[in-house]
C-alpha cells in the first residue's frame, strides 16, 4: 500500500509540474526555431542582441478560453494535491479519496478542453501575419496533451484508493 501511495504522489507531482510548464513556457507554436508563440506572448529571437523579444499575444476569445482552462487545470491539480495530503493524515481508516480524485479528473478535463480548443482554433489564436504552414506545435502543447491521460488515470486511482493503516 505504501508503494501505491508513493506512486500516486509521484505521478501527481509530475503531472502538476508538467501542467505548470505547459501553462507558463513559451512554446505552444514554433516557427523555424527563431519565433514562437504561447498562451501569453509572441516571441522572436534577436540575433543582434542574442535575446528573445516578446510582445503580448493578441487577446482573442479562443486564446482567453485556453488560458483560463489551463490555469484552472493547474489550480484543480494543486488543490487536489493539498487535499490529498490533508486527507492522508486526517482521514479515518478505510476512507476513500473521492474529492482528490474528482479534482484530478476535473484538472484532466480542463487540460483536455484547453488543448482541444488550441488545436482546433490555432489559426484564430496565432498572429495573422505569420505563415502557419511553416510552423508546428511546440513541446508545451504536447505536454498539455500528455498530461490529460495522466491526470485522468491518477484521478481514477485516487477514487479507488482507500486509506489503510
Automatic annotation (TrEMBL):
Subcellular location: Membrane
Keywords for the protein's UniProt record, in alphabetical order: Membrane, Signal, Transmembrane, Transmembrane helix
GO terms under cellular component: plasma membrane
Keyword set includes Signal: yes
Main location: membrane
Signal peptide: 1-17
TM regions (residue ranges): 62-84, 96-116, 136-161
InterPro entries, per the entry: PMP-22/EMP/MP20-like, PMP22/EMP/MP20/Claudin, PMP22_EMP_MP20
Alphabetized Pfam families for the sequence: PMP22_Claudin (PF00822)
Keyword Membrane: yes
Origin: domain of life: Eukaryota
Membrane topology reported for the UniProt record: Multi-pass membrane protein
Family: Belongs to the PMP-22/EMP/MP20 family.
Name assigned to this protein: Epithelial membrane protein 3b (MAM blood group)
Lineage: Eukaryota, Metazoa, Chordata, Craniata, Vertebrata
Amino acid at each position: 500500500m505504501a508503494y501505491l501511495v508513493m506512486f500516486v504522489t509521484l505521478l501527481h507531482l509530475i503531472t502538476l509540474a508538467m501542467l505548470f510548464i505547459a501553462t507558463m513556457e513559451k512554446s505552444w507554436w514554433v516557427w523555424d526555431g527563431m519565433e514562437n508563440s504561447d498562451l501569453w506572448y509572441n516571441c522572436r529571437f534577436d540575433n543582434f542582441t542574442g535575446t528573445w523579444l516578446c510582445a503580448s499575444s493578441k487577446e482573442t476569445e479562443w486564446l482567453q478560453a485556453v488560458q483560463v482552462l489551463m490555469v484552472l487545470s493547474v489550480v484543480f491539480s494543486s488543490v487536489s494535491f493539498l487535499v490529498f495530503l490533508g486527507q492522508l493524515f486526517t482521514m479515518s481508516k478505510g476512507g476513500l479519496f473521492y474529492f482528490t480524485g474528482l479534482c484530478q479528473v476535473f484538472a484532466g478535463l480542463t487540460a483536455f478542453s484547453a488543448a482541444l480548443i488550441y488545436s482546433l482554433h490555432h489559426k484564430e489564436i496565432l498572429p495573422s501575419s505569420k505563415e502557419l504552414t511553416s510552423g508546428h506545435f511546440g513541446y508545451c502543447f504536447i505536454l498539455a496533451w500528455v498530461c490529460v491521460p495522466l491526470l485522468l488515470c491518477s484521478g481514477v486511482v485516487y477514487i479507488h484508493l482507500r486509506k489503510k493503516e
